[in-house]
Structures are given as structure tokens and as C-alpha cells.
Amino acid sequence: MNSTIQTLLVFLTFLTGIILGYYVRQSLVKKKKGTIEAKLEKKIQQTKEEAERILKEAQQKADQIITKAQEEFRQRREELSQTERVLLKREQTLDQKIIQQEQREREFEEKLKKIKEIKEKLEQKEIELKKRLEELARMSEKEAKDELLKQVEKEYELDIINRIQKLQKEGEEKYAQKAKELLSLAIQRYAASQSQEITTSVVNLPSEEIKGRIIGKEGRNIKVFEELTGVEVIVDDTPESVVISSFNPIRREVAKIALEKLIKDGRIQPARIEEYVQKAREEIEQKIKEYGQKAIFDTGILDLPEGIINLLGRLYFRTSYGQNVLLHSIEVAELSGFLASELGANVEVAKKAGLLHDIGKAIDQQIEGPHVELGIKILEKFNIPKEIIDAMKAHHEEYQAQTIEAIIVKVADQISGSRPGARKDTLENYLKRLKSLEDIALSFSGVKTAYAIQAGREIRVFVKPEEIGDLEAYKLARDIAHRIEQELNYPGEIKVTVIRETRVIEYAR
Fold first, then answer.
1. Contact 287, 313 (CB under 8 A)
2. What is the pLDDT of residues 260-290, one digit of tens each?
3. Among 497, 501, 499, which Cα is nearest to 459's?
4. Which of the four pLDDT bands, split at 50, 70 and 90, describes residue 322?
5. Are strands 241-245 and 200-204 parallel, antiparallel or unpaired?
6. Contact, 393 vs 372, CB < 8 A?
7. 127 sits in which H/E element
């Protein structure tokens, strides 16, 4: 019984707790709900107030913008009205000026018409007066003029002739004086030293013993050296020196360089001679390039093709009547430039034509033909401008000078060649004779090389052993001597030496 009652009490207590908990929870929910609604209402109220404030501010700004726009519109309208008034006033002024101009034009036309009428009347009067004068003088106007001129001419004929002669003489004297001044000024501005080429070079030796090694056993070394270089080596009693003789400056320079290298090396033998001669030729080719470069730098002409520059360098080893052709060409270029600047001609054309006027002499020893014609072909090959070719080709009067630059180059060439000590005719003739000797020998088949030595008293001919035998060598010597007798004029006698050498080479492996 008691346990039942206890259970019932516990159940009632639990039920009462549940009911009380429910009501407490409902009370708390209602209280919290009321707080959220209050917050929402407050937030909505604040939002409404903010919106009203923003609308009010926007309305104020809109009113300000409208007020400002209305003010600007009013100002623009006033400006437009003022501009319209100004334009209207200007239009009225322009209309008035147009009316005045039209009035002036009408007045001018009326005056012009009156002037024409007066002119016509005066011309008519002049015609009438001429007719009346002709009737009184019994001759026409032209006849009267001719008669008057005849009388004046007859009366002052002598004075007129004397005056013309005097003016001509004074003009010629002035031109001659001016020409002398220009030439003297050009010569003074380029006062280059002149020296004649010689046909020998001296090589100094460290001791007298070297001479024997240069000659070699039975003269083999010196023979090989002379054959390869085409010069004559003179070994005489002159202490510690040998002389290299040749009319060709390139050969002479190659021989000198090769011999100096051989002496420095000390091993003088045929194989070493061939090696150093080849090196000397390569060194000469390099020097040719250097001389050409130096020439264009000295004259300030830097736009020439490489081939032209190399040909200019070769001119250093060419002489004309004993005068170095490259130095002569540089001198002509400078003189041409000075004269062209004084005369108002084209300085660039004159200088280039002066530098290139003898370019044909760089190859005229290898190719037949006058050096002027060869020079023209060379310049045309390298696309040198026509005005430069026209200026250079007239310096020996093969072609007529058609431009002032051509005349300038011709004068500069004559100035350079006529300087005291610049040229020597006998040396040039001597070199030509030696060249002719070599050309005659080289014209025969089977000849490898030919060198004129001993001042032209001997010609050494080296033949190809596979083409010329021992018996043919005798016949070749007689034929060459016979041709020399027929074609050349020379004092004394010329020795013809034909050399046939068979060289056998084998290798041990």
C-alpha cells in the first residue's frame, strides 16, 4: 500500500514538474519574442528616418543643380545674344564696305576708259606727227635711224675698236693673273716632296761570311733566289752588303724582304728560299692593301670599293718617268680638290677623278692597252659614277674634256708631273726597254718566266723542262736574240741566257 502511494506521489510530482516547465518555457518564449519585435520596429524606424534624410539631401542637391543649370543657361543665352549682335553689326559693316568697293570699281573702270581714250588719241597724234616728219624729211623712221647710226659708227669707229681691244686685253690679263693665283695657291697648299725611284736596293749583312752562304755551293742558292724573284743579286767587294737590282719595284721589294728573312734565319738553302720568297709575296700583298687604305685616308675619300683600294695600293710599286704613281695620284687628287673649291666646281668629283686618273697603270703591265682605256674599264666594272669617269679620262687628251672637273684634273696632272725633279724621262724609257725584253721572251711557247737583268744587258729565260729539251733550248736562245735584234733599239749587246732545270722529287715513307 505504501509503495503504491509513493509511486503515485512520484508520478504526480513528475507530472507537476512537466506542467510547470512547459508554462515557464512558454513564458520565456513570449518574453524573447517581444524583445525581437521591438528591435525590428526600432530598426525599421531608423531606416525610415535615414531614407527621409537621404531624400531631403538629394532634393536639396537637385535644387542646387537645377539652379546652377538655369544660371548657366541664362549666361549662355546672354552670350549668344551678344555674339549675334556683334555678327549683325559686322555684317552691316561688310555690306557697307562691299557697296563702297563696288562704287570704287565703277569709278576705276570709268577712269580706265577715259585713259584708254586719251592713249588712243595720243597714239593717233604720234602717227600723224611721224607721217608729217617723214614727209618733211623725205625718209622713213627706219631709214633715219640707220642713217644716224651709220654717222655715229663712222665717227666713233676707231674709239670703239680701241675700247674693245683694251677691254679684251684687260680681261685676258685678269684671267691670266687669276689663273696664276689659283695655280700658285693650289701648289703652295699641297707642297709635297718629290723623289725619283731607283732600280736597286741594298741589303745590309751582319758579317762578310753571309755572302758565301747567299751564293751557296757552286752558286746554287743565288741562282734559285734569282730565278724565283726575277732580280739580280750583286755580291761584290762592298763591305757587309749586297745589292738587289731590278726594274720592277714589286720584284725588288719581294727579293729584299725574302733575303732579309733568310739572313735572319741563317739557314739559306733552296727549300728555305722558296718558303721565304712565298712569305715575302704574301707580305707584299698585305702592304699593297695598306698602301691603298693609307691613300684613301690621306685624301679623305672613304667610299671606294675594296677592289679599287687594292689597285691603288699596287700603284705604289709603279713608276711613271721615275715618279711614284700612287704618290702622284694622291698629289693630283689634292690639287684637284683645291682648284675645284676655288673655282666653285664639284670638289668630291674632282678629288676622286684625280685619285683614280692613273688607275689603269695598276694592270697595264699584265693587260695590253693604254692605261686610260684600262682605267675606264676598271671604273665601269666597279660602278664608279659616270661624272668621275668623264673627269678622269681626259687628262691625256685622248678624250675631249666636257666638264670643268675634267679640265681641273688635267691641269692638276700637269702640275704634278712638271714639278722640278718629279720625273725623269730616261728612267722611264729604260724601264720600258726592260719590259719589252721580257715580253719578247715570254711570247715564245715553253717559256715559264723571263727576267731582264744587268741593266738590260742580259735576259734570263727559264723554260719548262717537259716542253723544251736541251736542243730546243739552243734554238730558243737564237730565236729570242733574233727577235730582239729586229724589234728593239739598244746600245751594245744583250746576252740571252736560257735555263732548263729538271727537278726530281721523291718521298721516303
1. yes
2. 888 888 888 888 888 888 998 898 888 888 8
3. 497
4. low
5. antiparallel
6. yes
7. helix 2-137
DSSP string for 175-200: HHHHHHHHHHHHHHHT-----B--SE
Task: Give the model confidence (pLDDT) of 469-492 as tens digits.
Answer: 877 888 888 889 888 888 887 655
Would you tell me how many other CB atoms lie within 10 Å of the CB of residue 319? 26
The string of pLDDT tens digits covering residues 107-150 is 888 888 888 888 888 888 888 777 777 666 666 667 766 766 67
Report the C-alpha gap between 259 and 245 in whole angstroms.
13
Report the C-alpha gap between 473 and 467 in whole angstroms. Answer: 10
Element (H, E) at 497: strand 495-499
C-alpha cell of residue 82: 551678344
Cα angle 51, 56, 58 (rounded to 5 degrees) comes to 95
How many residues are present in the chain? 509
* Residues 337/338/341/345 CA torsion (nearest 10 deg): -50
d(CA 246, CA 458): 12
Supply the angle between the helices 347-356 and 325-343 in degrees, to the nearest 10.
Answer: 160
Q: How far is CA 361 from the centre of its chain?
A: 23
Burial of 468 (0-12, 13-18, 19+ CB in 10 A): buried
DSSP H helical ranges for 236-269: 249-265
DSSP-derived 3-state class of residue 241: strand
Residue 346 φ then ψ, to 5°: -75, 105
Q: Residue 195: its pLDDT value, please?
A: 47
- Using DSSP bridges, classify how beta strands 200-204 and 323-324 pair: parallel, antiparallel or unpaired: unpaired
What does the alpha-carbon distance between residue 406 and residue 373 come to, in Å, rounded to a whole number? 16
Q: According to the model, what pLDDT value does residue 171 have?
A: 58
| Contact (Cβ atoms closer than 8 angstroms) between residue 446 and residue 476 | yes
User: In a 3-state reduction of DSSP, which class is residue 257?
Assistant: helix
How is the beta sheet containing 232-234 ordered, strand by strand?
Answer: 200-204, 241-245, 232-234
Place of cell 669707229: 157
pLDDT classification of 84: cutoffs 50, 70, 90: confident
pLDDT at 364: 57
Are 480 and 446 a contacting pair, CB within 8 Å? no
Q: Report CA-CA distances (Å) from 19 to 10, 32, 33, 457.
A: 14, 20, 21, 160
**Structure-derived torsion over alpha carbons of residues 170, 173, 179, 185, reported in degrees to the nearest 10:** -100
Could you say which DSSP state residue 448 is in? E
